[in-house]
Specification:
By secondary structure, the chain is an all-beta fold. Helix content is 0%, strand content 42%. It is built from no helices and 15 strands. The strands form four sheets. Strands 1-2-3-4 form a four-stranded antiparallel sheet, with no helix packed on it. It has a four-stranded antiparallel sheet with strand order 5-6-7-8, with no helix packed on it. Strands 9-10-11-12 form a four-stranded antiparallel sheet, with no helix packed on it. A hairpin with a 5-residue loop joins strand 6 (81-85) and strand 7 (91-96).
Amino acid sequence: MITPLGKHIFVAPHPFGLTLSPDGKTIITANSGVGPFSISIIKDFNSSFPDVKQIPENKDPEKGLLEAVFMGLAVSPDGKKIYVAGGQQNLIYIFDLTTNKKLGEIKCNKSFDGADYSDGYIGDMVMNKEGSRLYAIDQIGFRLMVIDTKTNSIIQNIKTGRYPFGVALSPDEKTVYVANVGCLNIVISKPLIKKD
């Protein structure tokens, strides 16, 4: 019989996404299950009494706080901000990890070539080491978005194969890998936009 090593920490239903803060002290899960959609912020996870906070904190959150969540999470290098993929809301939400308050959101409908991205489904994400660029997948728009975190705006859309699902950044940050489900292909985007 195989059993988990260590303890269990309960979060909200259906944690489809998981990330660790750069300092390794905070775990965040993206919970796409029974409403309300949420993220769980887990600190002191090695102690006997881990500190688990939910955003939203209650079952009847204010409208627009966090209306959808799917997979994607990215923590800023200083550990102060969490970026949360907003699924069918076509948004990326930004929260303060110290206060758990919403800082803003990134609208993901920007087009540079006349394509209609008004119905996006934002999923997996990855951030570069310095925190200046966020790479996010739009599963409906079949694209990779390059986002400037200083202006919280999309600066480039890169077409991918059908149904992009996973994204990874190479260690030298010169290549982004996108995995597409059901297509038996991988899209490799390089070179990326040059740094400012």
